[in-house]
Write a structure and sequence with these properties.
about 280 residues, alpha/beta, four-stranded parallel sheet, 12 helices, about 15% strand
Length: about 280
């Protein structure tokens, strides 16, 4: 299932719209500024959403986020600050405490997850899936899709999340039994799959409803991206992870099964595509 063609280039607008529908009155009236942290796709959806309703906000981005994402977000009137991944949450907390900003979480938020659940319902409207495979960064879309499928009464469908091996926050969380943080600077090409930590809410939902978190390497992501490109689909590295797991045979028992692989984002420039596809 390809959702890279949505007007923000990724699934993120689904959750953002629901977050904005549920803002406090002072935030809706522009009396309280909004702040978030994002590697790009959520930040872009956040910026477009706020711009559409005439509000301004701030986006904190990790240093490894593509520069073009910052340019796009700034073009919608947002303030952008960049920093190391492990500095993002403390900086958000500082703005909330000292400047009374309202924090819209990019993945660990009930309204956001509920918005992403719409994707799960659309999958079930289109087919009766045996297996659903979703990219996992912070886990917001994975949690939303899993909630929708399970709460609709489908207990037989196997649900997999896929992370990059260099940023396995949810995978580590499943192993330790609690939300985990990255213990080193992420180096993966899939910047959107490298949040500073797994959210408590997304972890709780995924632990209950998701069967397993799979891992794919950067090389496997690049090869998946190349395969999709030759099929006429331009998908960013973070959006390729689920397909990479499928392509490499990491999903068990799928013969004669209805398998849905979600491609989650297409925010990548021609230059980035050329660079990534030429790497060995």
């Amino acid at each position: 299932m390809c959702i890279t063609v949505m007007n923000t280039g990724s699934f993120k607008i689904r959750g953002v719209v629901n977050q904005l529908e549920n803002l406090t009155d002072d935030a809706k009236e522009g009396k309280r500024r909004l702040v978030t942290m994002s590697a790009g796709n959520y930040g872009k959806a956040f910026a477009i959403g706020l711009h559409t309703i005439g509000l301004n906000g701030m986006v904190l981005m990790p240093l490894n986020a593509p520069k073009v994402r910052r340019t796009i977000i700034e073009s919608y009137g947002m303030t952008v600050e960049t920093m190391e991944t492990n500095e993002l949450q403390p900086c958000v907390d500082k703005y909330v405490k000292e400047d009374n900003m309202m924090y819209l979480h990019s993945y660990d938020d009930a309204n956001l997850i509920a918005g992403h659940a719409s994707l799960g319902y659309e999958i079930m409207e289109d087919c009766d899936p045996d297996v659903v495979v979703v990219c996992c960064g912070g886990g917001g879309v994975l949690a939303g899709v899993a909630c929708a499928i399970r709460m609709a009464g489908n207990t037989k469908c196997r649900i997999y999340g896929v992370e990059a091996t260099e940023a396995p926050t949810m995978h580590q969380s499943f192993e330790t039994g609690r939300p985990s943080s990255l213990d080193k600077k992420p180096t993966t090409i899939a910047a959107g799959l490298a949040p500073p930590y797994a959210g408590q809410m997304t972890y709780d939902i995924c632990k209950e409803y998701v069967d397993e978190i799979l891992l794919v390497t950067d090389d496997e992501i690049r090869k998946a991206m190349k395969t999709l490109y030759h099929m006429g689909l331009v998908v960013e590295p973070s959006g390729c992870a689920a397909f990479a797991a499928y392509r490499c045979g990491k999903i068990p028992d799928i013969s004669d099964k209805c398998v849905v692989v979600v491609l989650t984002g297409g925010n990548v420039t021609p230059h980035e595509v050329d660079t990534l596809l030429s790497m060995h």
